[in-house]
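stage 2 :: seqdesign
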């Protein structure tokens, strides 16, 4: 459903909710995908949102709340009573139920877990023991596993028995008598094999799996690398613990990308942003602002040292913003690419040299183009070809310098265990302003006698 359709439905629902026309409201949202309903709820104000959510049955409500962003879900939960939350949790998959329960207060969470099915409660409690950013924290306990001695017929019967519990069955995990993962069978192989064939004969013993303690970002990289739609999670003894499906991995990718963007803005997480915690956010941003502050003081000092050169050729001062801006933009472009590559593990230590060489080639080409353009403008409009040539060459050097620093600094910061997403910017800005000014004004000073 596109944005226009969503917008029209939201406007209609606002009117119908005011009129409390429940049958028409239910008719409108009947059959909509949970993600579309979640988006509709996002665009409604609090009272309208709570009323519409109250009309959803527990099954639909559980799917919808799983599709909501963290802030909207928090607002919805804040207005639900324990019984309603219990109904919803009871309908959710174990991983989604764990995420929801972990957002509740300790008192309410305990009551909810006491009131849902004991098996479901035990699964949620088990999942909550794992760090939320690990494979164990994002895995689901709903999966189909069979003993390696099962026949194909027995496997099919097992799939049928769990059809309501397990959605989207992609693979069948094969275990031994001690629940150790020993193989994997695709649905295609099951269909093509005869009923009496032992599953051990058709299973693939080369299984890609992850341990429960593996970071979720690494899980996403493994799934991407091997084009998996589902991956098993095992403990330190290789016993099967759960599975992670591609939709969970997609959420992880979005979460990690959002986290990097938040860190670049000095925001630690969604909760801090929601709470508007001034001091906590300032604690993250201020140290790097101080780096930039003292760097700019150094820039001012650098300018003061070249007062004589600037007074002799006042035209040179007019082009300082161009030199600084072009260098700064080149550095930010380069650093952004490097930070992103590191964040999604696209680049490893042995590839750093190759990437730096590529950035050098790109910056040289871009610098020559920009330098030539600056030379043309100064020559044509100011009739100072020598001055234009000098500034053109300086611009090339500044762009190359800023680009290499932008590519190099994130790697150094990562080795120092400093988050490059939030700390790279001030370093690049300071370097460009200080070193860029030194290159520019130093060149003006050295070649000043030859410009006339």
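stage 2 :: out
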């Amino acid at each position: 459903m596109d944005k226009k359709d969503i917008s029209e439905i939201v406007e209609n629902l606002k009117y119908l909710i005011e009129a409390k026309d429940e049958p028409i409201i239910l008719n409108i949202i009947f059959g909509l995908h949970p993600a579309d309903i979640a988006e509709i709820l996002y665009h409604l104000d609090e009272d309208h949102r709570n009323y519409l959510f109250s009309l959803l049955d527990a099954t639909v409500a559980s799917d919808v709340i799983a599709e909501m962003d963290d802030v909207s879900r928090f607002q919805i939960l804040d207005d639900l009573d324990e019984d309603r939350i219990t109904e919803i949790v009871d309908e959710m998959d174990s991983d989604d139920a764990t995420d929801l329960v972990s957002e509740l207060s300790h008192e309410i969470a305990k009551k909810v877990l006491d009131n849902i099915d004991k098996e479901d409660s035990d699964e949620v409690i088990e999942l909550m023991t794992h760090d939320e950013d690990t494979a164990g924290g994002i895995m689901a306990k709903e999966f189909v596993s069979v003993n390696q001695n099962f026949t194909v017929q027995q496997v099919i019967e097992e799939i049928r028995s769990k059809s309501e519990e397990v959605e989207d069955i992609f693979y069948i995990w094969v275990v031994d008598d001690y629940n150790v993962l020993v193989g994997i069978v695709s649905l295609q192989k099951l269909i093509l094999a005869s009923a009496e064939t032992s599953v051990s004969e058709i299973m693939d013993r080369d299984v890609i799996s992850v341990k429960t303690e593996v970071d979720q970002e690494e899980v996403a990289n493994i799934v991407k690398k091997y084009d998996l739609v589902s991956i098993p999670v095992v403990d330190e003894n290789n016993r099967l613990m759960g599975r992670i499906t591609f939709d969970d991995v997609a959420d992880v990718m979005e979460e990690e990308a959002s986290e990097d963007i938040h860190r670049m803005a000095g925001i630690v997480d969604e909760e801090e942003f929601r709470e508007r915690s001034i001091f906590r956010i300032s604690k993250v941003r201020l140290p790097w602002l101080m780096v930039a502050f003292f760097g700019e003081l150094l820039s001012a000092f650098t300018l003061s040292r070249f007062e004589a050169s600037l007074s002799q050729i006042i035209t040179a001062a007019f082009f300082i913003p161009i030199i600084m801006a072009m260098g700064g933009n080149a550095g930010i472009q380069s650093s952004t690419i490097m930070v992103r590559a590191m964040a999604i593990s696209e680049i490893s230590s042995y590839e750093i040299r190759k990437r730096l060489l590529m950035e050098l080639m790109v910056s040289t080409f871009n610098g020559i183009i920009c330098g030539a353009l600056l030379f043309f403008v100064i020559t044509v409009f100011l009739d100072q070809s020598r001055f234009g040539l000098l500034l053109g060459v300086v611009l090339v050097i500044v762009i190359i310098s800023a680009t290499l620093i932008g590519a190099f600094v994130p790697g150094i910061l990562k080795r120092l265990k400093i988050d490059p997403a939030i700390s790279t910017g001030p370093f690049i800005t300071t370097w460009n302003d200080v070193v860029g000014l030194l290159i520019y004004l130093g060149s003006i000073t050295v070649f000043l006698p030859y410009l006339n």
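stage 3 :: structure notes
- The chain has three domains: 3-138, 145-246, 277-450.
- The longest strand covers residues 181-186.
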